[in-house]
UniProtKB/TrEMBL annotation:
Organism: Gaetbulibacter aquiaggeris
Broad class of enzyme this protein falls into: lyase
Domain Orn/DAP/Arg decarboxylase 2 N-terminal, residue spans: 24-266
Protein name as catalogued: Diaminopimelate decarboxylase
The gene coding this protein: lysA
Catalytic activity reported: meso-2,6-diaminopimelate + H(+) = L-lysine + CO2
Domain (Orn/DAP/Arg decarboxylase 2 C-terminal): residue spans on this chain: 18-354
Pathway: Amino-acid biosynthesis; L-lysine biosynthesis via DAP pathway; L-lysine from DL-2,6-diaminopimelate: step 1/1
Binding locations of substrate: R298, Y302, E329, Y356
Length: 411
């Protein structure tokens, strides 16, 4: 998107505000499907947790995607957005059997990653098809918090537990129609991914009624100029060859599935803030903006990098700034960044703000969560209103302390 378009949005809708470029989302979706064009049956299930606005989900439905969900609420969102149950896979972690059964009643594909839950479910519902999430014990991902396929991870059923898994299937006579893995996010080395795929293929041979193999996602996107990203085209070529070879050996054309979130929406997102104040200290120049980690927590949580540019003064002299928020706690977006000269009132744009940004926002410090805008067909569409004070109070229940009986006794 152009700086002028973003500035107009900040002017019309206020700040802070999230903006998503639908054209970039469509470009990334096509890029991924083109990379695996040699596969006969391909299914892209967008990971709802990355960005769950219902208008964004409806847009993915138009593009032809399915969705990957991790909670019953995300399942319900998908259905509300117009997805058919068969277009939805439910891959929770650590949820109760009752939540899985609730999703089953809605008709979606179930994906289970716990032997205990699998046995309970198979005993009660042996005829309902189930996908199994395998932990391949492969360390992948850009941060320990987002590496989920290693041996100490809470996710998936260990490949070393396959004999136990097969016993459960034999005893319950349940139908396993899919096998799944997800090693982590920000995977850079495609050889690590391909190595994990070999483990999954070997495991898949032990299941005779498979309909699909799901490789999760975790593809790395560039976070700054010159940054390295997953070579999705090379991965597509190499993994397609391996997958087609496996299908030939298996004797059946299976569906190859992926569950990308960040890859599809990260680069499409922009977060716009106004500069409240420029503060010079003895060692640092702070640019203090009208937001905080209540709106974008990733830099504080993961140490993630978001390029920050001054779209109000893109040709100004570059200086070094530490960009911080207004939360009453250490709240740093970027330390010692080289940015075009910043003045109070300028609009700063945070890039790569489409994935795990608004979806992880909160009302910390009793601040309102921001509006969301979808830029589609050269027009800004409001897809979430900015919260108001009524939203802060909405679910709170006030107690009437007027009577003597309700007074709090002190001392």
């Amino acid at each position: 998107m152009l700086n002028s378009q973003l500035l107009k949005i900040a002017e019309n809708f206020g700040s802070p505000v999230y903006v998503y470029d639908a054209e970039k989302i469509a470009f990334q979706y096509k890029r991924l499907t083109d990379a695996f064009i040699e596969v006969k049956h391909l299914k892209i299930n967008y990971a709802v947790k990355a960005l769950s606005n219902i208008s964004v989900l409806k847009y993915f439905n138009i593009l032809g995607a399915g969705i990957d969900t991790v909670s019953i609420q995300e399942v319900q969102l998908g259905l509300a957005a117009g997805f058919l149950p068969e277009q939805i896979i439910f891959t929770p972690n650590g949820v109760s059997l009752s939540e899985i059964e609730e999703a089953t009643k809605l008709g979606v594909q179930i994906n289970i990653d716990n032997l205990s839950i699998l046995e309970q479910f198979g005993t009660k519902h042996p005829h309902i098809p189930v996908c199994i999430r395998i932990n391949p014990h492969v360390m992948a991902g850009g941060n320990s918090n987002i590496s989920v396929g290693h041996i100490d991870s809470k996710f998936g059923i260990s490949i070393h537990q396959i004999p136990h898994l097969l016993r459960i299937i034999e005893n319950t006579k349940m139908n396993i129609n899919g096998i799944h893995m997800h090693t982590g996010s920000d995977i850079l080395d495609i050889d690590v991914f391909l190595y994990a795929s070999e483990i999954l293929f070997e495991t898949a041979k032990q299941f005779k009624n498979l309909e699909f193999i799901d490789f999760g996602s975790g593809f790395k996107v560039p976070y700054k100029i010159g940054d390295i990203e997953t070579n999705i085209e090379e991965l597509g070529k190499k993994l397609s060859e391996k997958f087609n070879s496996f299908c030939k050996e298996y004797g059946k054309d299976l569906t190859l599935a992926f569950e990308p979130g960040k890859f599809l929406v990260s680069e499409a997102g922009y977060f716009l803030t106004h500069v409240n104040a420029v503060k010079q200290t003895t060692s640092t120049v702070f640019a203090q903006v009208d937001s905080g980690f209540n709106h974008l927590i990733r830099p504080m949580l993961y140490g993630s990098h978001h390029d920050i540019i001054n779209i109000s003064n893109p040709k100004g002299r570059e200086r070094f700034y530490t960009v911080v928020g207004y939360i009453c706690e250490t709240d740093t977006f970027g330390n010692n960044r080289r940015i075009n000269e910043i003045n109070e009132g300028d609009v700063l744009c945070f890039k790569n703000a489409g994935a795990y940004c608004f979806s992880m926002s909160s009302n910390y410090n009793s601040r309102y969560r921001p509006a969301e805008i979808l830029w589609h067909n050269k027009k800004a569409h409001l897809i979430r209103q900015r919260e108001t004070f009524d939203d802060i109070l909405k679910n709170q229940v006030e107690i009437d302390f007027k009577s003597k009986e309700d007074k709090v006794l002190v001392g």
